[in-house]
Amino acid sequence: MSKALDGVRILDFTHVQSGPTCTQLLAWFGADVIKVERAGAGDITREQLRDIPDVDSLYFTMLNHNKRSVTIDTKNPEGKQVLEALIQKCDVLVENFAPGALDRMGFTWERIQELNPRMIVASVKGFGPGPYEDCKVYENVAQCAGGAASTTGFDDGPPVVTGAQIGDSGTGLHLALGIVTALYQRTHSGRGQRVLAAMQDGVLNLCRVKLRDQQRLERTGVMKEYPQYPNGEFGEAVPRAGNASGGGQPGWILKCKGWETDPNAYIYFITQAPVWAKICNVIGKEEWATDPNYATPAARLPHLKDIFAEIERWTMTKTKFEAMQILNKYDIPCGPILSMKEIAEEPSLRKTGTIVEVDHPTRGKYLTVGNPIKLSDSPTEVTRSPLLGEHTDEVMAELGYSPEQVSALRTAGAI
Ligand code: CAO
């Protein structure tokens, strides 16, 4: 079956996490992704957090599926020529080097345009234009600068970063959308363009509701769905909301049976207004359904802490899965806190290809997260990440280099 991005060639100049997430998605949609790596070393993540000596790390293998790898020294004059040939042949160049690195290599936007006016040049940077534009940035820096950390955690503790890689993988996703949008525009404009996804912007986009709350706070001085209400103080900025779900549907994480020994024996429980009477029935507080202090969402807001304490008395008598089963019968929104172990072993995620087992020549079998976006006409088949330089000869031949030329370039250290 054909793939959505069949025929699209990507010159993948990405490393670490943000850029590789983006190009991996494009590869899963069918693009031919040619990853250019530094000869001898490659993407630094190949050797980071290794669990098997001398074998590409899971960090690398899980971010670089379905790609080809070529090694080119882009600071070597002959290596530069190979890169120029690739620029002429590809549709998109994706990079996430530190600011200015591509220019220092000699590949300014103007130079790339000269080589290939249809080329789309897509970049992840830490910050957009402004005071921090020259800074190098990693995941947690972006979470802090994008507003996530100041709004995550509990009121009486420090800012907290989240396990979800919203700075790296989140920005990679944003960039992928920018690239396919630019490819679409090129179908009628005939021109390439630059696509920039700054990590601070990507995180802030995902924290949109917190900027909403900042303005609500400034107008009213209080936000009733926050745990700071009714007893705590609100300051000038959006506070950390703990596990509150916000919106009109208050929620919290509650202990379940076994919580004393299992750090994940918890459930997320939402007191959705339309099912309030059912919640009261399930937890044995039928009187709350008609009590004016509890019957309406507005009346409940000052009592949320007590309400969740009461619900927790019930959830603590059930495992998280038993509680899920009972609550779902009544359409009460809730979700178990799943550990990574439970997720890895979940048969339904294996069935949909969201968790995939991949075989690798030096590592053997390992689990990875497959394509989370399912297209009915463009199925994803996850194939292993390439070994360093595995496809150099193949790609050089496609670029028109003879075996003798390839061998000479190798001797010169260009590839
Ligand atoms: N051949 C020769 N040189 C190469 C090369 C190749 N194939 N590929 C890269 N290089 C060179 C670059 O030209 C650059 O050289 P100069 O500094 O002399 O210009 C150098 O390698 C290193 O690039 P870098 O500065 O991007 O790498 P770093 O490890 O110092 O920084 C990072 C890493 C991630 C902080 C930085 O790349 C960055 O800020 N990127 C943008 C934001 C981003 O994506 N962050 C997320 C990272 S995932 O957590």
TrEMBL record:
Any single GO BP term: oxalate catabolic process
Domain of life: Bacteria
Record EC number: 2.8.3.16
Binding-site residues, substrate: G247, G248, Q249
Pathway noted in the entry: Metabolic intermediate degradation; oxalate degradation; CO(2) and formate from oxalate: step 1/2
UniProt cross-references to InterPro entries, sorted A to Z: CoA-transferase_III_domain, CoA-Trfase_fam_III, CoA-Trfase_III_dom3_sf, CoA-Trfase_III_dom_1_sf, Formyl_CoA_transfer
Pfam families to which the protein is assigned, alphabetical: CoA_transf_3
Keyword Transferase: yes
One Gene Ontology MF term: formyl-CoA transferase activity
Self-association state and partner proteins as the record states: Homodimer.
Identification of the protein by name: Formyl-CoA:oxalate CoA-transferase
